[in-house]
Design goal:
408 residues, alpha/beta, globular, eight-stranded mixed sheet, 14 strands, six-stranded parallel sheet, 14 helices, single chain
Length: 408
């Protein structure tokens, strides 16, 4: 089967979506399918870094396209980067032949529509992997106003993509419910959450020691937020907790990752002269186990308006590592369904501070923690084969009972 995958990021990029789509592409290629990936030349969080235009990895034909690299410091910069990639992608697709299956994702927003149009013009079937829902996310963030002609046009584009999708993959039941409200037949929706990276993520004693030593965290109680820093994951409550605990020299708040709001964290720490805040970039997948294991308490955050729109997939790797985690967000979400160790609403700084102090009283982790109950249900070996089977079924390929996943 000939399969085309459209997403802005791909291996070796360290962005979360790049890791997930690389898992899928590598497993499809290992099963004998002819896989082509169209993505950007620029690294997600370091737009000045460029990859080669054409590459082959694990038998996958990678087409990397030119686009601007203004970054995320302003909305117009992001819009130009998205727009130029969409234009490059559209022009490039005219040069490609028909594929049996096109898998479209959501980076940049609404690239799915380009994939759907490609199958309309050249044939094949379209599958839509909804990693986040736009323009719904942009409306929730206040970047777009509901009811304007721009918003209505973008909603029409999204709905048109959904109408033409033979398969729509939702990440949780809340997202599936939103998709149904947009008119998607429930029979075309398959709900599959992202997975933990079992082959790369586990509690790593040596990696924990190396990470903590490299960043002068020995003997400290480390509270860690690891992942995308964006408006959909508002960090204000956690930052205010760091300010309240600024005199606790034994507690350090470590923000690891990237995104438009990481600069806000830096500015907040600078404004209040917080020496207990450490800001670090995304860690390579090969070092992810060590960085996640370095925490004594993880934090997962979801904005109140984003249930069913975004899905903080970082929680699955945290559960696999076994480090306790605190959730800040709405009481009804997929994260609360996983039963975090503690949950607090946004703005409840007192509860967050109290919980951090209670856990810190026990001191840094000693010994190897046990993965959270049910962590195996979110494993890569369990969920990735289900997604592969759904894609093969949609594309018309024979579906087998067992799907060995590729080791990255």
């Amino acid at each position: 089967m000939r399969i085309l995958i459209l997403n802005r990021t791909f291996h070796p990029d360290v962005a979360s979506k790049a890791q997930y789509v690389s898992d899928v592409a590598a497993t499809l290629a290992a099963r004998g399918h002819e896989v082509t990936v169209v993505c950007s030349r620029r690294a997600y969080n370091r737009p000045s870094e460029r990859y080669g235009r054409r590459d082959t990895w694990r038998g996958i034909d990678i087409h990397r396209l030119a686009c601007t690299g203004f970054g995320k410091k302003a909305k117009w910069r992001r819009a130009l980067d998205f727009g130029t990639f969409i234009i490059s992608c559209t022009l490039h697709l005219f040069t490609l032949r028909q594929h049996d299956l096109v898998l479209g994702m959501t980076s940049p927003p609404l690239i799915s529509w380009i994939g759907a149009m490609f199958t309309r013009l050249k044939g094949g079937r379209f599958a839509f992997w909804v990693m986040d829902l736009n323009p719904d996310e942009a409306i929730a963030a206040g970047w777009l106003k509901d009811g304007t002609w721009v918003t209505r046009a973008l909603q029409w584009i999204l709905n048109d993509s959904l109408r033409h999708s033979a398969l729509v993959i939702a990440l949780d039941r809340h997202m599936a419910r939103r998709l149904e409200a947009k008119g998607v037949d429930p029979g075309r929706i398959q709900t599959l959450p992202p997975w933990s990276h079992d082959d790369a993520v586990h509690f790593d004693v040596e990696g924990r020691t190396a990470f903590r030593r490299a960043h002068e965290l020995d003997g400290k109680f480390v509270v860690m937020y690891s992942g995308n820093h964006s408006p959909s994951h508002p960090l204000t409550t956690l930052m205010r907790a760091a300010r309240v605990l600024r005199k606790r020299s034994d507690i350090v708040f470590c923000f690891v990752g990237g995104g438009s709001e990481q600069a806000t964290v830096r500015e907040f720490a600078c404004q209040f002269k917080l020496t207990n805040v450490l800001v670090l970039p995304y860690q390579p997948l090969s070092q992810l186990a060590g960085s996640l294991s370095a925490a004594d308490l993880h934090v997962v955050v979801m904005g109140d308006r984003y249930v069913g729109i975004v899905h903080p997939c970082k929680v699955y790797n945290i559960r696999a590592v076994g480090v306790p985690y605190l959730y800040i967000g709405p009481s009804e979400s997929h994260v609360t369904e996983l039963r975090p160790d503690f949950a607090a609403a946004h703005g409840n700084v007192e509860a967050v501070v109290s919980h951090i102090q209670a856990v810190a009283a026990r001191g840094p982790l000693a010994g190897v923690p046990i993965p959270a109950d049910g962590a195996d249900l979110q494993s890569r070996d369990r969920l990735l084969p289900q997604l592969i089977q759904a894609l093969e079924r949609t594309g018309g390929a024979p579906v087998t009972d067992t799907v060995p996943v590729a080791t990255l």
